[in-house]
Fold each of these.
Amino acid sequence: MAFRGFGGIATSGLIAAAILWSFATTDVEFSRLLSAGPRIADFFGRMFPPDPTVMAEIKKGSAETLRIAILGTLGAVILSVPLGILASETMVSPAVFRPIRTLLAFIRAIPLILVAMLMVGAVGLGPLPGIIAVAFHATGMLAKFYAEAIDGVSRAPIAALESAGAGPLVRLRYAIWPQMAPVVARDTIFRFELNLRESLILGIVGAGGIGFYIQTYVRSFQYDKAASVTIAVVVMVIAIEAINVALRRRFT
Amino acid sequence: MSTAVEVDDLRFAHTGADFPALERVSFRVSAGESVALLGPSGAGKTTLLALLDGRLQGWSGRVSVLGAPLDPDRPPPSARRPDTGFVFQEFALVERSSVLRNVLNGRLGRMSPLRALLGSPTKHDLEIARTALADCGIADLAERRVDSLSGGQRQRVAIARCLAQEPRLILADEPVSNLDPAHACEILALLTGAARTRGATALFSSHQPDLARRFAQRIIGMRDGRIVFDVPTSELNDDATAELYREVGPIPGIGLRAVS
Ligand SMILES: Nc1ncnc2c1ncn2[C@@H]1O[C@H](COP(=O)(O)OP(=O)(O)OP(=O)(O)O)[C@@H](O)[C@H]1O
Ligand SMILES: [Mg+2]
């Protein structure tokens, strides 16, 4: 069990304290929650029936989101190949992989939406800042996955090629790559799925894609149109997941 | 006759080990000889062979392989590595690659680095790989993936890879430990025969004294990291092998002791 002994009591105490602290210092008024009911009902009422006339916008927005995810993933793969090699203990010395791993952890710690806002400021509105943001953000995870894939292969064939006189890059290509290829395929597909999900909302900060329409319709109180776009997003997420489950099963 | 391997007062301990895996090891192997290393588990056979292959550093003593001294602190230059071929105890094949690809991997050190990286073996490389496959009796398996092979077939691929490397010294670590007696004989005949026709020296480890007798001209017995005998095959007697594999006696201070 997770919560056993003194460590368990201490952990439970800490969790309880955190919850109490959050209630005490946040403006949680139950009266506001109670009066919210009718307003939420009104909100949903205005969403129905969803307005089907926005089909063209949905198509345009989802195509752009898809392009952002594809090009963002491509950019992340291009960055992650060298960074993954430099973050693996099989290929380089600790003096190299330690700082690279720290850098990757740092990249992972920055939320995508924040990167996207910075990029919109740097290169202007549209899908380009979205692509750059996705590529940057995804590299933090993908390069780490690639490094783990390199370090996870069986060592014996690497030693065999070393014994035959093959250099490090040749060993990477003929002893490491064949072993790690399915893992890389699975990891890349997984990251593509995440990129697609996460880029659905990039439009909210002006970084392109279908999120732009949700934001526009909500701001202009056209909830029936916002509802149509939201349904489209949900359908897309479910479809992506189904496709990826099928794809990933092929790489085991 | 020239010398293929010369070892003098070698001592080596694995990092973190509190006793040496090799101690006061001295022997020599003439070029063209077939020599067997016998000894119980943990005797230091794999360690000695890997060290001769240039894969272990931090030892002391003098070691020279094919006329060139090994540096105790750094691996040999890559130009020299193809001359020493190694057959690994657990094969060390790339499971998801084809048999031919694995055998061609043995040639990587013989190609220019650029050609190796681009993966374009010459006609000559392919010919040598195919010859090695044929010599090992697995020409028909060339396109099969290694993960679809039996243990005996993998053993043959491992030997073919070593032969494709065109080594002048073949180090084989228990090349028949996974095989039934008939196949074990066949594989050892193949390995020592290939070494002989190629004018190469063979040093192989084994747990089977009768096989060592059949295929080696000389037998070196090891125990606890030391050489306990080094004799021509004809002089090996059963007492010496029995002594080599005798059970470890009661260790002072541990467990039960014999009551005298
Ligand atoms: N990587 C390692 N780190 C620490 N100790 C090791 C390492 N490899 C081997 N040893 C130790 O060195 C000694 C010799 O091992 P080695 O593998 O050379 O024996 P072996 O004669 O090949 O045995 P086997 O017949 O079981 O293959 C053993 O005591 C072993 O535990
Ligand atoms: Mg061994």
Note: The interface with chain A takes residues 53-55, 78-82, 84-86, 88, 90-97, 101, 105-110, 113, 116-117, 119, 161, 165 of chain B (CB under 8 Å).
Amino acid sequence: MEFLESIVNSFNSNLILNNGWLVVLKGLWVTILITAFGLLFGTITGAILCFLRLSATGLLRIVAKTVIAFLRGSPVLLLLMVFYYVVFANSRIDAVYIAVIAFSLNSGAHIAEIMRSALSAVDKKQLEAARMLGFTKYRAFMAITLPQAGRIARPVYQNATINLLQWTSVVGYVTITDLTRTVNNIGARTGDPFFALFFGILIYLGISYLVNFLFTLKIRNREAL
Amino acid sequence: MIQTVDLCKSFGNLVIFKNINITVQKGECVAVIGPSGTGKSVLFRTIAMLEKPDSGQVFINGTDITRKDININKVREKLGMVYQGFHLFSHLNVIDNITLAPIKVSIMKKQEAQKKAMELLSMVGLTEKASAFPHQLSGGQQQRVAIARSLAMDPDIILFDEPTSALDPSMTGEVLAIIRKLARSGLTMMISTHEMSFAQDVANRVLYIDEKGVYEQGTAHEIFQNPQREKTRMFIRKLKVFSYSITSRGFDMVAMNVQIELFCQKYNIDSRKINHIQLVLEELILEVSGEAEGKQQLKIDFTIEHSEEKGEILITFCYEGEFQNPFEHEEEGDNLGMVLITGVAKNFSHKYEDGRNTININI
Ligand SMILES: Nc1ncnc2c1ncn2[C@@H]1O[C@H](COP(=O)(O)OP(=O)(O)OP(=O)(O)O)[C@@H](O)[C@H]1O
Ligand SMILES: [Mg+2]
């Protein structure tokens, strides 16, 4: 009973008092924003890097390879700090935008490698079989290689999305008030960090489940087609 | 019609073929044979412009398709290819495999394409597999779908690159039957195959590829029964003769028996006779390796040959060492193995020359 009571108390002091839940919601929104745009631009960046990485021109391949290796090798927090404190130090760009740029680049490098390995896992002879039926190179790629690579890449891409979501929790270092920072602040204010932080973890878990759910939805749609 | 004019292809320094001149008339079926690695696949791929020739021309229905201003995609709509490895679209079911190109390339209506696909499926005997996925089919079934997929574009020509080499002998028949049907229907085709009886049956001509070009050509009868040139002879003999060497007592007899069985199945030899052949060889090997025990290195070579005229099997069994004739045994009745052999053999003989025993057995 006492335990239950203490939970209710914590709930009140952390989330109800001073409209704590509104603050949490705002932090959650920032986290989702950075994750969603990071993923969107990361996917675009990844596709471009992958395209260059597989291009016939040696120079482009080397450039893409170097960029990917650099981005994958550098911790995303350091990348973020470089952008915030060095590259955009004197500009008035909102820190959230800077975070989106940093996370796009980082996840873009990972996604480029995911795409490349998925593409190379597809049977090239099937593409050739399509060419022999009269498909152009581009249309054969769209009809045969891309859907198959998509299936291969899906689980890894899903993981990358969850990873991205969790890594956004470091944006507090560059003054962004995301979900992690918010629950940390609330915990510090109420002197009850356990409840606040644990509540934060539950929310991250919830979003992860939601992401996984969205991925399965996409699959069902495709199977229905 | 297919015509190549002085077609040359090499990869870097490796010359695959030089100055190939082939003509396949409309409605003709030409078989291409040759040892592994002589460039049969590369030749087919070059004819389809999947590989760029170094020089020379390829004419398809009279048009030079090596020209830069040719739309190769349009050409390929009428030029099909069937691969050794099937290569069905693995993310699509059977019917979608067949209708994909008609719908997307020739812009056929979906319903119409499906109706046609069902007709093709019934032609290859797979109507009930229409909604199966490629991985749910046997190799033979996959190859039949691949043929239907190719036919869906109404091609004038199909190139078959070893369409049965990846299949179990039990499945080659179903695929060959369909190709036979197509040959009779007047489709122009080139087919690389090692199935002699099949080539004899359907091919108007046989090309033997070796030495970087067409080494010898003629009717199936000429090439298989009476080849004129050295390498062709050797190749045909290898196709007709099964040979095997044993150098240690620990050799894999199970694997040997499987190979013998596969060889015999090519000639439709019935299973009783196959058993006899295996029995005779096992007994001979046991006899010879038992006698020679500890004395010297074991060295046995044998060949199995099928003589079509007599309907007989000729076994030539050689082993090195001292004179040893297993048919002349002192202790009578002791040797069950030899009794078995003399029981199934039509005739048998033994001779000894230069430290080599040779036994000939006809079954
Ligand atoms: N893309 C390529 N690059 C370099 N060498 C190649 C390429 N494709 C084939 N070759 C070489 O060309 C030669 C002929 O190969 P090919 O596959 O045409 O032989 P094949 O007659 O079809 O043999 P098999 O009966 O085993 O199918 C081989 O030595 C092979 O290694
Ligand atoms: Mg080949």
Note: The first strand of chain B starts at residue 2 and ends at 11.
